[in-house]
Structure formats: C-alpha cells, structure tokens
Amino acid sequence: MPRRRITQADVAAMAGVSQATVSFVLNDSNPSGVRISEETRQRVRDAIRITGYSANPAAQRLAGGLTQILGVFTYESTFPQGGRDFYGPFLVGIEHAAEKLGVDILLFTSARVEDGRRRLTRDGWQRLGIADGCLLLGQHEDRGELQHLLDTNYPFVFIGKRGSDGGRLPYVGVDYVAATARQVDRLAALGHTRIGYVGSRGTDQPTLDRVEGYRATMKRHGLTVRFVELDDVAATAAEVADQRLTAVLVAPENSPEELADELERRGLRVPDDISVLLLGQPLHPRPGGRRWSGFSIPREEMGARALHLLSRLVAADTGRPARRDAPQVPDDELRQLLGCVDVDAETLAPPPA
C-alpha cells in the first residue's frame, strides 16, 4: 500500500511545535510579535528532512510564499511535429537559465489548441497561481489576457517584443528594425538598387518592425520601396520578375525555399540573377536545402534572458506586502531588445551586370 502524504501536522508533531511555526519556518518569515529561536527552526528543518515533507505549491502560493516554480505558456503547440522546432531553442535557453537560478519549470499544457491557439483563461486564472510567475510566447496572444495580468500584478514576461497601453508590458525580444536595416545596407553596398520586400504586411510585431526597417533604410539610400504581396508562390515569383528586382528580403514564414525554386524555374538563378536574404531562420528547413544569407535570431539567449527577468520580477513582486522592500526592476530593463547576427551564406551576391 502506498504511504499517505506527509503533512505539516506530522512535521509539527515530530519537532514539538505548532503548525504555524512550521509554516513560518518554511516561508522563512518573522511575523510581528512572534520570536522563533534558531534552535527551534533547526528542529523544524530536521523534521522536514527526516519526514521528506514537501509543501503543497498551490497552498504555499496562497499563503504568500514562493514556490520556486516558474511557468511557461505557449499560445501554439510547443513540441516539434514533422521536423518543425521553432520553440525548441527558446526552451533550451529557459532550461539552462532555470538550472543556474535553481528553479523548476512548469509547462502549462492543459489548455487545448483551438483554431491554432490556446487561451490562458480556458479554465480560469487559478492554475497560474501554482507558479510564482510565467513566461509567455507565441504569435496569437490575447491582449485582454495580457492586460488582466498587468492589472493584477501577476509577474510575467513575454518572449518577443509586444506593445501595450502605457508601455508596461515586460518582454525580451529582438531588434528586427536594426537587423532588417542592415540587410538593406549590405545589398546597397554591393550595388543593388532594385530591392523588394516579399510578404504580407500584417499587424504582428515582427512584421511591423521588419517593414519599418526596410522602408526607412530604402529611403535613407534614396531607393524606391517595392513591396511584393505574398500570394501563391507562382504569382509572387511572377511579380518579382515583372518588377525586375535584383534582390528580395523574405520573412522566414513566407516559404523562401518554394519561392527560390519558382524563381529558378523562371530562369532567375539564386544568387547570380537575384539575391534572397532571409529575415530570420527558416521555420521549416528543407533537408539539404539552401544555406540562407540574412540574419539569425538568438532564440536561446531570448529564453534565458526572459527567465532571468521573470525571476527578478518575482523577487520584486509588489503584489505581496512582505516584498515591498525588495529591489525594483528599472523601467529600462523591463523591455529588452537583443541584436541579431548577420549570416553570410549562399544566397547573396552583387547584382547582375
């Protein structure tokens, strides 16, 4: 028969103290008017070690203590399927940071993916209380949910740049504006003047930043902005050819391999006739596919930095009166943008003579 769960009452009985004293020792607290000697605290610690008692995380959270558990919630499916592993590097960075910080990671997976996305509030907010704070990542967040987290002072950090009313939302993202601008500079330095941007101009933050970097840098070089809307691959390639572009910038979600294949079927060799720069790593790399020039996103570092920021927010959580004297995180550190690394590979060359 499995033995029953050890309770605080068992620890209190072994140490010869009250359950309240056990709770105070577990939370390392010094309540007003109560004095607990170091000898008593040691007896409680010994009893915890001997009995193997572990606090109920949810109860410890409700009591105002810290569980040393940090959550991770993704708005889309997390684990790779069919070779897709976009979130993998983020999780690797999170794991390494958690090991250094000495905290456990809880992946929230009970919310089903419906219409390509999850919702934090599917089963109410109570589940988040198991963790001291939570990392959020994904492309289909609910702004109302994020605002609720801000209003209730629940510690969280978004992996990826996000805006919010009042600019209060903490995040660790990448500087797509500067990275995209550098790609235009690289092309202009080689002599390209007919540089296009391929892709839908959506309202997601990465797209907005890429378009801003492209548009501003083309203007700085005195070049004409040339957008090619992403339709089916054949129509997109035809538009690139019709505009006589010598280089294009392509977001990784916009089927770069298929686009390059179609361009070459039309007699435009990559990169001899047309350079293709990828604005981030390919989401679905083709085995034996092209080695793309462009820039890469430091996803592992993003995950690690986000967890470190979250741990600081938990330590400074003003939602707990006992933590009001904790050091606060400066505003300029709540929103961090990391630099991207330029990649020199096979798809960049000077324009044809």
UniProtKB/TrEMBL annotation:
<dbReference type="Pfam" id="PF13377">
    <property type="entry name" value="Peripla_BP_3"/>
</dbReference>
<dbReference type="InterPro" id="IPR046335">
    <property type="entry name" value="LacI/GalR-like_sensor"/>
</dbReference>
<keyword id="KW-0805">Transcription regulation</keyword>
<dbReference type="GO" id="GO:0003700">
    <property type="term" value="F:DNA-binding transcription factor activity"/>
</dbReference>
<dbReference type="InterPro" id="IPR028082">
    <property type="entry name" value="Peripla_BP_I"/>
</dbReference>
<keyword id="KW-0238">DNA-binding</keyword>
<protein>
    <submittedName>
        <fullName>Transcriptional regulator, LacI family</fullName>
    </submittedName>
</protein>
<dbReference type="Pfam" id="PF00356">
    <property type="entry name" value="LacI"/>
</dbReference>
<dbReference type="InterPro" id="IPR000843">
    <property type="entry name" value="HTH_LacI"/>
</dbReference>
<keyword id="KW-0804">Transcription</keyword>
<feature type="domain" description="HTH lacI-type">
    <location>
        <begin position="6"/>
        <end position="64"/>
    </location>
</feature>
<dbReference type="InterPro" id="IPR010982">
    <property type="entry name" value="Lambda_DNA-bd_dom_sf"/>
</dbReference>
<keyword id="KW-0678">Repressor</keyword>
<dbReference type="GO" id="GO:0000976">
    <property type="term" value="F:transcription cis-regulatory region binding"/>
</dbReference>
